[in-house]
Structure formats: structure tokens, C-alpha cells
Amino acid sequence: xxxxxxxxxxxxxxxxxxxxxxxxxxxxxxxxxxxxxxxxxxxxxxxxxxxxxxxxxxxxxxxxxxxxxxxxxxxxxxxxxxxxxxxxxxxxxxxxxxxxxxxxxxxxxxxxxxxxxxxxxxxxxxxxxxxxxxxxxxxxxxxxxxxxxxxxxxxxxxxxxxxxxxxxxxxxxxxxxxxxxxxxxxxxxxxxxxxxxxxxxxxxxxxxxxxxxxxxxxxxxxxxxxxxxxxxxxxxxxxxxxxxxxxxxxxxxxxxxxxxxxxxxxxxxxxxxxxxxxxxxxxxxxxxxxxxxxxxxxxxxxxxxxxxxxxxxxxxxxxxxxxxxxxxxxxxxxxxxxxxxxxxxxxxxxxxxxxxxxxxxxxxxxxxxxxxxxxxxxxxxxxxxxxxxxxxxxxxxxxxxxxxxxxxxxxxxxxxxxxx
Length: 420
Description:
Distance between the termini: 43 Å
Largest sheet: none
Helix content: 55-70%
């Protein structure tokens, strides 16, 4: 397969923002012009093609404003270099101000090859270790380590060339994806996660890894999906499927995960029938027989995780007996390593009990989840428990609910929640 060329930073940012085609970006820039009151800076399809070429020209000032407004990134992270030299940090940029402490990761052009090829393998080995540590180490601690590892990877990338640079870029993309996952699922910081996913997609482009690019785009769909923005989530999932089709030998389990992501987003947007259909397609994908080997980095999904997705969807759709059965089966099959997923499943089981008018059973499941959260914090799990408690106000005077409140608002849990 030919390696993708051109301004991969701009292309990645465009696709991540939900503009699958260059014409879609042209239309979005036209709308941005109306929003910003810019009437004298029309952008043509030909212009966008030039911007995505291997040698993109430096855009005019008004075009820069439109691009930054539409894509949410500064010019250097969109693949442009000013004619007066290398890009510099612009503290006055509204995009940079909005990003706050976001880690700038402008990807380099082909490096100078000063580092030996073994460096890429050494870097990938550390990435592999972080992947395993994620499931046990507290989120802020592992995030700090992985983020610094990503900074190192960016520096090394500029000192590599050829196949070793591609290997290192793939490991860098995985590290950035992991930071984004921690930001979104563990710490519930979607804006930071959004920036990391863009950077991860740029690194995956440098590695020419279509399947990893698909995984990054699918993760990015959670951001609008959890915010109830159905069209934005659908556009990113559409792009993720395009990338997956371009990959060679896509595992059925990966395809099933894409359906599970769709189901989660549809559920969050209140489209329960569509979500259940997506779950059904995921189950069909898993039952198709012969399968390609899973990539080593694809460690966040399995058939039991699909069952957990299904149970949550059944719960939200009001299919309570089916949800209880599905979730109990998923809980029984979760491995000891799946501590974070266990809190989510326990929270959903508690919600089933509450919805069926069993506050004592709901509280018992919720306290099980809190016991697990005391070992490994997971913001997505705590979010389930907060939703549960809001649904139980009618039973606030019961002893079991007051005990649940005591656990929800004990010192350690409260400080964790405020910090996140």
C-alpha cells in the first residue's frame, strides 16, 4: 500500500473535525466566514487541495483565521510553515489560549536519521509497558508518564528516518491515543482528550497506519456522542470506517467494536432502537467465523465488553429483565484485570435495580462499585453512580441510601471527584 503523502496534519485535523471531504471543509470555511463577519476571503476547492499538498503555501491572514476557527488548531499544527521560518509559540492566538496546558505536538517532516534504528524499538517497548500499566496504575500517575513519553517520541521522530521513523510514529500515535483515553474516560476532560486525538491521528498518518487511524477516529466519536451531538459522532465514525476499509485484514473484533462505539453514541443521544441495531451488527461481526489477528494495541475490547455495551443499551431502552441478565453474564466473565469496566457494569446493574424499585439491591451494587473505585479510580464509573443516586431521591430517607451517601461523600471519594 502506498504511503499517504501531502499535508497529513491538515488532512487529519479536517477528518477529525468531521469533514470527510475537501469540499466539506470548503463549505465549513464559508459558514465560518459568515459567523465571523468575513466576506472577502472565499476559499475554493482548488485552494484546499493546495493546502493539503506536500508543499502547502502559507495562507493569507483571513484564511488563517478561518482555518483556526473551523478546525480548532493553530497554523503550525495544521502543517503550515510561515515564509519567515519555523513556527513559534504565539501566546496571543485564541486557539492556543483555549487549549491552556495542551501539549503542542507539531509533527516533523522526514528526519535526519541521526538516531540508530534500535531507538524506535526501544521506544515501542516502553509504549507497550504503558499499555499494560494503564489497567492498574492510578490515572493521573500513568497519564503523566505517558504524556512525557509522547514528548520524547516527538523529539526522537525528528531524529529518525525511513522505516524506523514509521515504527516510532506508530508507537507515538498509540501513546497519544492512551493519553486521550485517560483524559476522556478516566478523568472526564473531553476538551483535552479532543486535542490528544487530533495529535494521535497526525502521528498515525506519519506511520501510515490505517487501522490505528480508524481506532483514533472512533475514540474521538465518543466526544460529541457523549455530549448528545449525534451528527458529529456519526461523521467521525463514518471516517473511522473508511480508514478501516483501507486497512488490510481488519479483525472481526475490531469491526464489532466500531458497532459498539456507534451503539454507545446512539444511546447517549437517546436513539435506543438504533443503538440496539448497532449492537446486533456487532454480535453478527463476532459470529462470522475466521478472523484476522488482533493488533497488539487493541486491548480495550472483547466479546464480554460488547455484552457490557449491550446491557447498558438495554437499560437505557427500558428492557430491564434483559439488561439484568446481560449485565450479570458480563460481570461473571470479566477478567480480574478489567477493574475499570467492572465499576461500569456494577453501576448499570445498580441502575437496573433502582428502575425496578429495589433500592436496597441498587445500593448494594453501588457500594460494590465504590469498593472497586477505591482501588482504581475511573471517572466513567463514578459518573454511573452519580446518575444512579440522582434517580433515587424518592428513597433518600432509607438507611441503605443514607449509607450510600456516606460512601459517595467520604473524604477520599469527594476529593477525587473534585480533582477530576
